[in-house]
Design goal:
Elements: H1 24-27, H2 34-52
C-alpha cells in the first residue's frame, strides 16, 4: 500500500491473518474496505439461502400488466 496511489483501497475476502497477510496499519486504515466487503457478502449469502430454501416462492401474487 505504500506504493499505491492515495485513493487506492485495500480489499480482502477475510479472514485475514494479521501480521502474516496484512499489517494492522493497512487493514485498520481509512483506505481499507474489508468490513464493507464482508457486510455485502453477508447480505448476498442470506439471499442465496432464502432462495435455496424456497423462501419467497409463491409469496406474492403476480402483478397484472393492466392498470
Amino acid at each position: 500500500m505504500q506504493l499505491a496511489k492515495p485513493h487506492a483501497r485495500f480489499m480482502h475476502c477475510l479472514p485475514a491473518h494479521r501480521g502474516c497477510e496484512v499489517t494492522d496499519q493497512v487493514i485498520d486504515s481509512v483506505n481499507s474496505v474489508v468490513f464493507d466487503q464482508a457486510e455485502n457478502r453477508l447480505h448476498i449469502q442470506k439471499a442465496i439461502l432464502v432462495w435455496i430454501l424456497g423462501g419467497g416462492v409463491g409469496r406474492f401474487r403476480a402483478r397484472s400488466t393492466h392498470a
